[in-house]
Amino acid sequence: MPTSTRLPSPLNAPFVQAILRSGLLRPDDLLPVLAELNVDPAKLPPLQLATHLVRKKLLTKFQAMQLLNGRTRGFILGQYKILDGIRQDRVGMVFLAEDTQQQRRVAVKVLPTDRVSDPTILREFLKEVRAAAQVSHPNIARVLDIGHWQGTHFVVTEHVPGVTLDRLVTEKGPLPPHTAAQIVAQAAVGLYAAHQLGLVHRDIKPANIALLPDNRVKLLDLGLTHMLENPWARVTRRINTREYAEEIAHIAPEQAWGCEIDARSDVYSLGSTFYYLLTGEVPFPGLAPEMMAERQIRGVPSPRQKRAEVPLEIDTIVQKMGAKDPHARYASAREVLIAMQAWLPLAQWLSLGIAPPPPVEAHVSAPPPRKKRGFFAWLFGR
């Protein structure tokens, strides 16, 4: 009596098994696609199958590349499915993810294991993240969730689909002075909201400020920087790398040496960012050791020395924000806003409820008039 030969299940192919182990797709997701191919998956090159799944929008390019490189873990963090990598910063890796319960895209920051293994550091970090989660402001990316999944600690924040200032300057070069001032004034509004709640950002820099198509500026990573180490805490090979120099290019002198920091440290970093927007350069170029030594000697330089068309009013504001001595800076984001009210929409300025400054003396030049063409009109060529 003839015996029937049982064909191997298409789900037994090694690459298909890797996909299933990752948790990204279920058998019910894969079987119809494998049937369409009409090829034994075991004989199908993994790259071809991965490409087909990307075209079907069942995998992202990032997921496919990770799987092809042999990675099958770390794609699922509870209700969050990792879709793509966004950036690596001083705190951890940031990923674009799907919130499978709320059906929305979010940003997930995975925290470094060497830092979360210290109970004291973790406790203080979580305390600050919970405080930041109470902040709901249009100029700040919201903290949505704190999670722990199979040994991985992570923080979930609002996904901001705008362009960060470092990318903007890389792509377009230094910004028109009044455009830069409008952006910095909007960032200061977000800082003002944070400072009112006793929160210090600690890592204001171009990469942590985003521009949105709806004309808003958003601060990223509020409450997520408590784990930042003193740059001299561990002298490693990274100290002499250009990547590390870029990460710490805008921190205040007192922060560079691990001293006490407050709102004025954020003011310095925003002033340093302002200089970058105007000139396309960091205030103190070079590697970290030279950069950190230089900022102990002098404040953020005059942007007019690099770019003569920068108005004197803006030049003065940048240098006061970036003064070496914290006592010589604006004492808070509130004072920055008073100095920069000319670059805020009138309705927004009035909504802040900040008392106007005393009348200017007759010999002091008046703030520049608001231009009808906004910075997003310039940005998007409208």
UniProtKB/TrEMBL annotation:
<dbReference type="InterPro" id="IPR000719">
    <property type="entry name" value="Prot_kinase_dom"/>
</dbReference>
<keyword id="KW-0418">Kinase</keyword>
<dbReference type="InterPro" id="IPR011009">
    <property type="entry name" value="Kinase-like_dom_sf"/>
</dbReference>
<dbReference type="GO" id="GO:0005524">
    <property type="term" value="F:ATP binding"/>
</dbReference>
<keyword id="KW-0547">Nucleotide-binding</keyword>
<keyword id="KW-0067">ATP-binding</keyword>
<keyword id="KW-0723">Serine/threonine-protein kinase</keyword>
<protein>
    <submittedName>
        <fullName>Serine/threonine protein kinase</fullName>
    </submittedName>
</protein>
<feature type="domain" description="Protein kinase">
    <location>
        <begin position="80"/>
        <end position="344"/>
    </location>
</feature>
<keyword id="KW-0808">Transferase</keyword>
<dbReference type="GO" id="GO:0004674">
    <property type="term" value="F:protein serine/threonine kinase activity"/>
</dbReference>
<dbReference type="Pfam" id="PF00069">
    <property type="entry name" value="Pkinase"/>
</dbReference>
